[in-house]
Design a protein that fits this description.
two-stranded antiparallel sheet; single chain; 4 strands; mainly alpha
């Protein structure tokens, strides 16, 4: 068992307690961040004269060789080490001798792990933001191709009013746009360096924290050493943002599942993102969409787990905080994979435009417009509402749409109907005359698409 402590102890830790305490099996994924932080820390130590340039060069060579050997499979990270930090330090000392023992000068595992987790999370914020941009690009492309693809809009899962596919998908564009902006806000708040905070009270060594922060791409150092080693707000915020994003993906998945059903047949999911049945040969199941919907709960669970872990921890660092990693790694991995798969599924999905339009026509989605038609003819709205309600009942009994009624049938309900009613309640008219910003009319949708393009051109993560 390789450990960084022990001088204070006469006895050894029990094997079970060691395994319970160790984090190497999951924090080994922080190796690149640990090496990066150690390179910056040793660079700073040499700058302020705590170690020599020769010692710094030896440390850098040793650290880079450890990372290279692990990545090439020449060196294995095993559970004989307590954590990734002890793995790096022990192997460094083995390779370069006493100079390796100086790396930890002016540093605690507390600010070291705080840095590693912050660097890892910062990388993942950027990764997810770029994946969100791919989703937005995919949505924007489909929207641009379907400004005049008519479909029913729903409330309470009941057909309500006619919209377009571009308008419907535009709602998800707005959701994922907000998700990307949340990530930007998190990045701006979290991008400060905790290294140099020590265990909780800083250090007596003349560390140049501004220099270290700059080397690591931070805006600057954190301002309170106790908060620095015990802060996981940035991770909670990230999990919260991922939970919200997964909620949006889950809602979208639910709609794809419904649209894919035999009753709707609005979409055809590509074979690459579907599975079959072991017993029913006719089945083509939307398993990817269903799994995205299902994995949303795991991301929610990670957020609640970390909130619960942090709620009773006094300042400063406590071992409880080791519990931030496994659930976060799992949530980040799942959210990232769900976003990739859903975007790929969406980009290959075929939309059955004719079925969408027929569904809108047969679903009385133009009933409100028919009532508005009577209002324009001088009928009070409440009376118009009642008249059209009776017409809908009549059509249900006849198994027809309002558009299928003859003018004599319409006049039997109200003598204000004229031949111009058919144009007034056509899907094309119903959609095109809705020109307020945010509505499905094609002219206003073109303005929205222009704004979407501007947002994508200025996307915040493009240069990071």
């Amino acid at each position: 068992m390789a450990q960084l402590w022990g001088g204070r102890f006469e006895g050894s830790i029990s094997e079970l307690a060691w395994k319970f305490n160790a984090s190497i099996n999951f924090d080994k994924r922080l190796l690149p961040q640990d090496i990066k932080g150690s390179l910056a820390h040793s660079e700073m130590l040499a700058k302020v004269g705590v170690i020599t340039q020769e010692e710094k060069d030896a440390i850098h060579k040793g650290l880079k060789s450890i990372l290279s050997d692990v990545e090439e499979g020449k060196l294995e990270i095993t559970d004989k080490y307590e954590d990734v930090h002890s793995f790096v330090e022990a192997n460094l000392i083995d390779r370069i001798g006493d100079a390796g023992k100086k790396l930890h000068t002016g540093r605690s595992r507390n600010d070291q792990v705080a840095l590693d987790m912050r660097l890892y999370t910062r990388d993942e914020v950027i990764n997810v933001a770029k994946l969100l941009k791919n989703m937005l690009i995919t949505l924007d492309k489909i929207m641009g191709e379907n400004v005049e693809t008519y479909m029913p809009g729903f409330t309470h899962l009941q057909k309500a009013q006619p919209v377009t596919l571009a308008h419907h998908l535009g709602a998800y564009f707005e959701m994922f746009k907000r998700d990307s902006l949340r990530l930007h806000d998190i990045y701006e708040r979290m991008n400060y360096c905790p290294l140099g905070s020590g265990a909780l009270a800083g250090t007596t060594y003349p560390l140049d924290r501004e220099f270290t922060a700059k080397l690591l791409g931070f805006y600057g150092p954190t301002f309170n050493s106790m908060d620095s080693v015990s802060d996981r707000d940035y991770l909670i915020e990230f999990l919260s943002a991922l939970a919200t994003m997964m909620m949006h993906l889950s809602r979208f998945s639910e709609e794809v599942i419904i649209w894919n059903s035999n009753e709707y047949r609005f979409v055809e999911i590509d074979d690459a993102y579907s599975t079959g049945s072991s017993i029913m040969p006719q089945k083509k199941n939307p398993d990817i969409a269903e799994l995205v919907r299902g994995k949303t709960g795991r991301v929610y669970g990670a957020l609640m787990s970390l909130l619960t872990t942090m709620k009773g921890i006094p300042l400063a660092y406590d071992k409880d905080m080791q519990e931030d990693k496994e659930v976060s790694f799992d949530a980040i991995d799942n959210a990232r994979n769900c976003l990739i798969l859903f975007t790929d599924m969406l980009s290959t999905m075929k939309f059955n435009n004719d079925n969408m339009e027929k569904s809108a026509t047969k679903g009385f989605t133009n009933a409100t417009d028919a009532a508005d038609y009577l209002v324009v003819k001088g009928v009070p709205f409440r009376d118009a509402h009642s008249i059209i309600g009776r017409i809908v009942l009549y059509c249900i009994d006849k198994d027809q749409a309002i558009d299928d009624m003859t003018i004599d049938e319409l006049k039997s309900f109200c003598d204000k109907f004229d031949a111009d009613v058919y144009d007034a309640i056509s899907l094309k008219t119903c959609v095109e005359k809705r020109l307020t910003l945010g509505a499905p009319g094609p002219e206003v949708m073109k303005k929205v698409l222009d704004e979407n393009h501007k947002f994508l051109d200025d996307f915040w993560a493009k240069d990071l």
